[in-house]
Design goal:
- The protein has about 425 residues and is mainly α.
- It has 23 helices and no strands.
- The two termini are about 20 Å apart.
- About 0% of the residues have low confidence.
Length: about 425
């Protein structure tokens, strides 16, 4: 389930008027009037340069917004503050951004209030102040600004700038979502799908995901595809699942790329196609997605869609492991232990089993214990061997239960007591929660 747990950067770009195609002669007349200080002409030019595809020039738009702002336009003050804040069409300048945003915010402009809140939340040109950011978001939200409503809800949900209050968070998420805010729609979908301080309701979750997905929001498309794939809140439907995963993947959303690879790999909802599967996994791996790296490693290991290539499998396992993927760490340890695709290196095998073991992966805990017992890659230590195998056995890993009995035979009563105590400590820290 994909959850947009980030705040939403406020933006009013392209929120101005749009125009029928204007002639150059009309533009020249506007320029002459604007140069003579005509505020309406300055705003009209700024909007034309911002929105007219034939005359699009954000630099000129910024120039005329600045002129209009200096001429007293509240709309232009809010706009030029935003453009300075993000360096759009004009050099980024936090000091100028704060000046203009504050001026517009003091006059009650909702977009300026929301952007100023963002500055205080993110420490952009000002000292970070969550309470003040919260207050500014609240003012903008009460004026109906949807991004401010979303960010205010986020602050309530996380206890930032205010006491945590999921009731208020839900209220503001819903107000933003009802205005078509796709991030709020996604967040409501996640809340109902997981039952986060509300009664779990997968049908309602699907509807919120659908609203955001139909606006083209990739994370929502991914989640909607997931709901169809699992039959959660809707009848299970591989075709619909594939449709929404494809839409998200076309936007480069990495988890959708990976899932689409699995659809091709398993022939789910479409004809099985190893070439397409590998292409999807490669695209996801290029975006540093470790599950895709791990999947590629398995394909090379087993010769699925590609010739068997143990060295290539090792390389992909290593990349997945180095990106922190637990199963990748475990399989990399096995490569070193067995000399598969790489020269045998028991010390390296021990190191990677240990990394995976400390992430509560039972097979790694079991194998780490075995290495301690055999003195492979580390000095033999039956007490530590018992401790790690005890953790795996406590989680119900059957091979560990059998191995524990054998190691017990090698320990005297005092050592066994020490080993059990170690196992209990390790289980508290690294056992399956």
């Amino acid at each position: 389930m994909s959850n947009d747990s980030t705040f939403k950067r406020v933006s009013s770009r392209n929120s101005g008027k749009t125009f029928e195609r204007v002639t150059l002669d009309e533009v020249d007349k506007l320029i002459n009037r604007a140069k003579n200080g005509n505020l309406a002409a300055q705003l009209t030019l700024a909007n034309i340069y911002e929105t007219d595809k034939g005359l699009l020039n954000i630099g000129l738009a910024a120039m005329w917004y600045l002129e209009a702002a200096q001429n007293g336009s509240l709309e232009a003050q809010a706009k030029i503050g935003e453009l300075y804040l993000y360096g759009v069409g004009i050099a980024r300048d936090y000091q100028e951004a704060i000046k203009w945003l504050q001026r517009a915010a003091d006059q009650g402009n909702a977009t300026a209030l929301a952007n100023l809140a963002w500055c205080y939340q993110r420490a952009m040109g000002v000292t970070q102040d969550f309470k003040y950011a919260f207050a500014l978001y609240r003012r903008a939200a009460e004026l109906g600004h949807s991004s401010a409503q979303y960010n205010l809800a986020h602050m309530y949900a996380n206890g930032r700038g205010s006491k945590k209050d999921m009731g208020e968070a839900l209220k503001w998420f819903r107000l933003a979502a009802d205005q078509g805010n796709s991030k709020a729609q996604l967040r409501l979908g996640v809340i109902y799908a997981k039952g986060i301080e509300v009664t779990k309701n997968e049908i309602e979750a699907v509807e919120w995901f659908r609203k955001a997905a139909e606006q083209g929001y990739d994370k929502a498309q991914f989640n909607l595809g997931h709901m169809y794939a699992k039959g959660l809140g809707v009848p299970q439907d591989d075709k619909q699942a594939l449709k929404w995963q494809q839409l998200a993947a076309q936007q480069g959303y990495v988890r959708a790329l990976y899932n689409l690879g699995l659809f091709y790999l398993n022939g789910r909802g479409l004809r099985q196609d190893y070439t397409q599967a590998i292409e999807c996994f490669l695209k996801a791996a290029a975006k540093n997605y470790p599950r895709a790296m791990y999947q590629l490693a398995k394909l090379y290991l087993r010769g699925i869609g590609v010739p068997v290539d143990l060295r290539e499998a090792y390389s992909w396992f290593k990349m997945a492991a180095e990106h922190g993927f637990t199963r990748g760490q475990y399989r990399l340890a096995q490569c070193y232990q067995e000399g598969s695709g790489i020269e045998k290196n028991l010390a390296a095998a021990f190191e990677w089993f240990q990394k995976a073991a400390k992430k509560s992966f039972r097979p790694a805990q079991y194998n780490l214990g075995r290495m301690y017992a055999a003195g492979e890659g580390v000095a033999r230590d039956y007490i530590r061997a018992y401790g790690w195998i005890y953790v795996a056995a406590s989680a119900g890993y059957e091979p560990a239960t059998q191995a524990l009995n054998k190691i017990t035979e090698r320990l005297n009563p005092h050592e066994l007591t020490e080993a059990v105590q170690l196992g209990e400590r390790l289980n508290l820290e690294y056992g399956v929660k």
